[in-house]
Amino acid sequence: MASWRWGGTHHAGTVSPCGREVTPLAVPQPERGALRLIQLLARGEPLPRAAGPRLPISAVELCSPLPRPLRSLLCVGRNYRAHAAELAGTVFRESLRAVGSADDTWPIVFTKFADCVVGPFDAVKMPARQVSVQIDYESELAVVVGRGGIDIPRSRAMDHVCGYTVVNDVSARDVQVRHQQWDLGKSFDTFCPMGPWITTADEVDGRDTRVRGWVNGELRQDGRTRDMIFGIPALIENCSRGITLHPGDVIATGTPAGVGMGFTPPRWLKAGDVVKVEIDGLGFIENRFA
Ligand code: MG
User: Which terminus of the chain is more exposed, N or C, with fewer CB under 10 A?
Assistant: First the structure.
């Protein structure tokens, strides 16, 4: 499922299996992207009829498949062991010691404002220097919730997955650390590129796929989702404890090792840098920092 602009208007619809063509579907408020389609799928209803001709994907401007998610994204911190190890050498070491190490029981979960979502190839705005000078990238698999629910046990969690998409959980590290809670430093305008579309769970298994991230063509991150500390079923179980998940909710599952903060000295992003995030089976997003 994808969302795009073409001919001066928004459209939502499907992507051909090869990823080369899009077909618009007759959905009300197509600017709300694929959300309506996710809701239909979650109820087991058929997708609407086509609302126009198939178009080559190169002819349209892809938007985030969820240009404005229903509410904040749920995000998971420190969810790969190699990434946890690289953070242990940073300012996060104190908070991580409190969390524990190999025998973690509970994941770190924070939120990212829905408003910061931008398209898969949109520019990311660097903040003013007095606001932050430590801008970092995080390549991540995002789970898109299909059927909603509360107190979902991990044994049934995969029944609630509609599909997956790619996000860059862009982070202002100095702001993230300063406020103890991470939300402000994670939610600057444009700090959540998402896309290129939502791949449904029958086409790819997010529990084991490859996540890679590049900065200016240099491979920085290369991990597999099977190496998560908390796998997708455990994350859905945790995020739905006492909280109803709705169709279209997004859970960003954490990033592999290789973020800029993990280098000595840290390698912060600067204006003009281009970050690409690719996940096998899902496609890639690529964003210039400006
Ligand atoms: Mg993250």
Answer: C
Strands 139-145 and 161-168: antiparallel
pLDDT in tens, 168-210: 999 999 999 999 899 999 999 999 999 999 999 999 999 999 9
Give the DSSP per-residue string, 13-53: EEE-TTSSEEEEB--SSGGGTTHHHHHHHHTTPPPPPB-S-
109 close to 238: Cβ distance less than 8 angstroms = yes
Region label for 229, one of left (φ > 0), alpha (ψ between -120 and 50) or beta (otherwise): alpha
Distance of CA 13 from the midpoint of ligand 1 (Å) = 28
For residue 55, give the amino acid letter: L
pLDDT digits (tens, 9 = 90+) for 175-186: 999 998 999 999
Cα of 71 from ligand 1 centre, angstroms: 17
Q: In what order do the strands lie in the sheet with 21-24?
A: 55-56, 21-24, 9-15, 2-6, 61-62
Which pTM value belongs to this model? 0.95
Alpha-carbon distance 176 to 213, whole Å? 21
The Å distance, Cα 5 to ligand 1 centre, comes to 28
46 Cα: distance to centroid of ligand 1 (angstroms): 34
- Residue 255 Cα to ligand 1 midpoint, Å, equals 5
Query: What is the CA(169)–ligand 1 centre distance, in A?
Result: 5
Q: Could you write out the DSSP letters of every residue in 169-186?
A: --EEHHHHHHTSSSHHHH
How far, in Å, CA of 89 to CA of 99, rounded? 15
Q: Tell me the CA–centroid distance for residue 149 and ligand 1, in Å.
A: 24
Report every protein residue that has its C-beta within 5 angstroms of ion ligand 1.
138, 169, 255
Taking the C-alpha atoms of residue 189 and residue 115, their distance in angstroms, rounded to an integer, is 7
